[in-house]
Amino acid sequence: MIQWKVALLGTALLLLDCGYLRPLTSETRMQADLVGQQLRCGNQFIPHVNTVQAVSSWQLIRRSTNRRAGNDTIYAAVNLESEDPFYGTPCVLSTNLMIVYRLYDQGWQLESLSPYSACTVSCTPSTRH
């Protein structure tokens, strides 16, 4: 009886250590992780590199998680608040993002993010002359 309990406890600890029972990244944390990230957006002639200041809209499109391989890929339609890198005026970046998390010893960590569809930028006109 004691051997059975030890085996069950050992299996539970192994599952915890391998990440099978670690919680996935929540949508709230994903949005918070985007803040401060740099994202290339704009057309091919004038690419903007914008630093995300806030997430104004978020819609999860799909999610693919492979706990055994330790990756979590999220596709989301987002509107991100930023500012024009040239003039400093407020901007909204609208795109679909692919966000990849990897499972490390400390838990799920943001690995990469990239637009996978057209990225549009709309900025408030500058009042500076």
Please provide a written account of the structure.
- The relative contact order is 0.18.
- This protein is of the alpha+beta class and 129 residues long.
- The N and C termini lie far apart (82 Å).
- The chain has helices at 2-18, 27-34, and strands at 38-42, 47-51, 54-66, 71-83, 90-104, 107-115, 120-123.
- The strands form two sheets. Strands 3, 4, 5, 6 and 7 form a five-stranded antiparallel beta sheet that branches. A two-stranded antiparallel ribbon has the order 1-2.
- The protein is built from two helices and seven strands, in the order ααβββββββ.
- Strand 5 (90-104) and strand 6 form a beta hairpin.
- The chain is elongated.
Shape by Cα distribution: elongated
What's the helix count? 2
Nearest-integer average pLDDT: 80
Proportion of β residues? over 45%
Secondary-structure-based class equals alpha+beta
Spans of 5+ residues with little confidence (pLDDT < 50)? none
Helix content: 10-25%
Q: Would you list the SSEs in sequence order as H and E? A: HHEEEEEEE
The biggest sheet, with number of strands, parallel, antiparallel or mixed sense and barrel status, is: 5 strands, antiparallel
| DSSP summary, beta strand count | 7
Separation of termini?
Answer: 82 Å
Rg on CA atoms, Å: 20 Å
